[in-house]
């Protein structure tokens, strides 16, 4: 038992050495150090800076102090400690000419906006808030911009219900219709509902894409088979089917062949070459010679009308016998 107590005491001493310095260090931090360690910046005035810098600085600083749970009194103290040079001299002048009970965080913001933030800038941010919609932003991105711009539209969202209603109405339609309206609803609860709904819709979209891709892959083999069958059918009809007549030729009822013009069987000419000087059985041309010369009858006649030398002598007549 004593041994366990000694071990516990040793562990406590180790923990004190590890955590003690950090705890004391955090306790000694000034407000300025705490703010700057969380991302706030010093403000020196408007000399040499863009016109929107003062408004942006006050927005960011207030957001950080809200995250740190600063009271209004501590916010005023902290933000004054961030002023330097021109801005610090300006605040000293304002402070001297203002009653002490009027010095507050809201007063500071109003005089900063009046001195450094132009009316056109404030009106622009108010219009931006009025026209703000989610569009292609995520819910988290839309929430951040909504909260930042809502400072310029306090009259439009004075109550919690108005803030929630405006946030919901500016969501995308596919999210808005899935969030049931409620009279009593905190903004952070509405934001969480919107984020969950967004995740569900995103998952459904991914599932549809995967299913569509799977169906496409499953259908590709059958399409390939159909294309192959169609090709085989087309090739087979050319090879094994009836001979296809050349363009412009018709089937002759007299000879059963395809040709143009009057049938040679009626003129008693050669059905192979078209010559009137002999019949097909006495034609000096073979089938392959006729094909090589071409299918035009007039061309064949010009070739055949000059028969080989001595042909008539060998037949002893004109070859019509």
Describe this structure in words.
Residues 270-284 form the CCHC-type domain. One of its GO terms (molecular function) is zinc ion binding. This is CCHC-type domain-containing protein. InterPro entries: Retrotrans_gag_dom, Znf_CCHC. The structure is a single chain. 60% of the residues lie in helices and 1% in strands. The longest helix is centred in the middle third of the chain and has 54 residues, at 187-240. The radius of gyration is 49 Å and the shape is rod-shaped. Mean pLDDT is 72; it is low at 14-27, 237-242 and 295-321. Helix 9 (160-169) runs parallel beside helix 11. The protein starts with a helix and ends in a 6-residue tail after the last helix. With 321 residues, it is an all-alpha fold. Strands 1-2 form a two-stranded antiparallel ribbon. It has helices at 2-28, 31-37, 53-67, 72-81, 85-96, 105-115, 119-130, 139-150, 160-169, 173-176, 187-240, 287-293, 297-304, 311-315, and strands at 250-251, 258-259. Strand 1 and strand 2 form a beta hairpin. Among the domains are: 31-117, no CATH class; 139-197, no CATH class; 263-309, no CATH class.
Fill in the keyword field for this structure.
metal-binding; CCHC-type domain-containing protein; nucleic acid binding; single chain; zinc ion binding; 2 strands; 321 residues; mainly alpha; Retrotrans_gag_dom
């Amino acid at each position: 038992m004593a041994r366990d107590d000694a071990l516990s005491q040793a562990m406590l001493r180790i923990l004190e050495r590890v955590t003690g310095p950090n705890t004391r260090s955090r306790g000694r931090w000034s407000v300025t150090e705490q703010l700057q360690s969380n991302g706030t910046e010093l403000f020196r005035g408007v000399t040499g800076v863009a016109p929107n810098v003062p408004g942006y600085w006050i927005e960011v600083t207030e957001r950080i102090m809200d995250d740190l749970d600063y009271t209004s009194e501590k916010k005023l103290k902290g933000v004054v400690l961030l002023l330097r040079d021109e801005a610090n001299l300006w605040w000293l002048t304002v402070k001297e000419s203002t009653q002490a009970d009027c010095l507050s965080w809201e007063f500071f913001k109003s005089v900063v906006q009046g001195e450094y933030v132009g009316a056109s800038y404030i009106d622009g941010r108010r219009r931006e808030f009025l026209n703000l919609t989610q569009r292609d932003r995520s819910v988290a991105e839309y929430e951040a911009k909504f909260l930042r711009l809502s400072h310029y539209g306090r009259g439009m969202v004075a109550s919690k219900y108005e803030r929630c209603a405006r946030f919901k109405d500016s969501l995308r339609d596919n999210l808005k219709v899935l969030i049931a309206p409620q009279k009593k609803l905190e903004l952070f609860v509405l934001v969480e509902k919107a984020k969950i709904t967004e995740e569900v819709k995103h998952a459904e979209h991914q599932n549809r894409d995967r299913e569509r891709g799977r169906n496409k892959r499953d259908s590709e083999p059958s399409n390939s088979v159909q294309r192959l069958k169609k090709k085989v059918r087309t090739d087979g009809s050319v090879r094994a089917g009836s001979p296809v007549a050349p363009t412009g030729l018709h089937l002759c009822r007299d000879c059963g062949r395809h040709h143009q013009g009057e049938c040679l069987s009626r003129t008693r000419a050669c059905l192979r070459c078209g010559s009137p000087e002999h019949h097909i059985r006495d034609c000096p041309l073979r089938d392959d010679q006729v094909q090589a010369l071409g299918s035009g009858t007039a061309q064949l006649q010009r070739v055949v009308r000059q028969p080989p030398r001595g042909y008539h002598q060998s037949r002893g007549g004109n070859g019509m016998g």
